[in-house]
Amino acid sequence: MSLLLAMALAAAEPACPSEALGTSRTLTLKREAAAWGKAQHAALPGLVPKEVVLTFDDGPRPESTPVVLKALADQCVKASFFMNGEPLRQHAALARQVRDAGHMVGVHGDRHEHFSQLPPAAQLADLEAMVASYRAALGAEPPAWRFPFLEETPTLLKALGERSITVMSVDAGAEDWLPDQTPQMLATKLLCQLAKSGGGIILLHDAQDQTARALPFLLQALKANGYRVVHLNWQ
């Protein structure tokens, strides 16, 4: 595609509608041995009250991740996706679609293990497999990692720090892995947790069908309650 054609296509893209939630700004972080999220660490620096970072775990999944991507695009929202190695290998093209839509892609363990129950060698082997899968699919080094089940271990914290991979915990969520929840139930849980935290890193799961279906409602609820979305980027 020529540069002129690309510019013409970009110019032809519809503007973000005024009623959309939108992405208020981008926060650029350093690639370093840091750890953020008040569930386990300090608050993400640079955020102010009522600002949120949308994050999704456990994908990519063909049945639900595209639904999540559409909901985000409809509201002009950028998010962060923490992917597992097995689905990343199986659906590398979908992972690239997530990245090419402007979202951040991080890592979430190769096999979504309970690392606290594994010997150090197995933990490190999982990390190696995860990083290799990320490189193969996306041609880059992962900037950020979230522990499965938020179960941190000294072994992996040290190894991630040596690789300058940032650890991302959470500030609020909707417990969207629990079955049989309606969009209103998920929104109520999320808004309740955000009211306590004041904003911050939101944990959702793009591998959950109910989350994908509810996301338009959740995004509207965030806008109605005055929350602003901040996108993360690593330099």
UniProtKB/TrEMBL annotation:
It comes from the Bacteria. Residues 50-230 form the NodB homology domain. Transmembrane segments: none annotated. InterPro entries: Glyco_hydro/deAcase_b/a-brl, NODB_dom, Polysacc_deacetylase_ArnD. Pfam families: Polysacc_deac_1 (PF01522). Keywords: Hydrolase, Metal-binding. CDD domains: CE4_NodB_like_6s_7s (cd10917). This is Peptidoglycan/xylan/chitin deacetylase (PgdA/CDA1 family).
